[in-house]
Amino acid sequence: FTSNHPLSVRRPEPRGHSLVDRLAVFIATCAYVGYAPVGPRTFGSAAGLAVFAAVRASGSPGIELAVLIILFAIGVWSAGLAERYFGGTDPGPIVMDEVAGMLITLAFLPVTVTGAVVGFLVFRILDVVKPWPSGRFEKLHEIVKLALNPTARLDDVAHTVFSLFFSFVFILPLAWVYTLTKEKERFDPSL
């Protein structure tokens, strides 16, 4: 089944592609979340927020770090194969970088649900706006792609670093104040 609708995206077809190619597309699109007809990267970031919640529920920084490393590694591998499958550089359905970006943005921060949502919004805004210098990194992508890594997305790395910086500068202090307030309330219910 194929669609001529302008928002339709080429879906994996079982014939003509190896199992490895199909697995790579499945991973790179975050279990096909990247096929959302509108805002696939926003849906990918939301999937990253869900993965963050599941990982954070474990309560183990070691597990959080392991998941970050594993997602990054399989993301790089799967994105390279998926780019060849889709026939373009950083096509819309590839959202594993958004998933990993969300995990990195909120990594090891003691955030509440509100903090996680703020981190999500900041990450999405920075991904869309691409503030300086991440917009310049996007232009350098083709050169770096040839020289270093065919799946390197320097603009995504740059805005993820900005999101992480924003999280440490703004979200972490707010989480700290919130925690202190809750601790104080525990000992003084009149607050």
Defining traits:
68% helix
Task: Provide an overview of this structure.
With 191 residues, the protein is mainly α. Helix content is 68%, strand content 0%. It is built from seven helices and no strands. Helix 1 (19-28) packs across helix 3 (61-86) and helix 2 (40-57) packs across helix 4. It is globular and about 60 Å long. Mean pLDDT is 75; it is low at 1-6 and 143-152.
Uncertain residue segments: 1-6, 143-152
**Beta-strand residue fraction:** under 5%
- Main beta sheet: none
- The count of helical stretches stands at 7
Structural class: mainly alpha
Distance between the termini: 61 Å
Order of helices and strands: HHHHHHH
Output the radius of gyration: 19 Å
Let me know the average pLDDT.
75
Q: What's the total number of strands?
A: 0
Helix content: 55-70%
Specify the overall morphology: globular
Q: How does the SSE layout of this entry go?
A:
Layout: H1 19-28, H2 40-57, H3 61-86, H4 96-105, H5 113-129, H6 134-147, H7 154-187
Helix pairs in contact: 1-3, 2-4, 2-5, 3-4, 4-7, 5-7, 6-7
Question: Short description, anyone?
Answer:
With 191 residues, the protein is an all-alpha fold. It contains 7 helices and no strands.
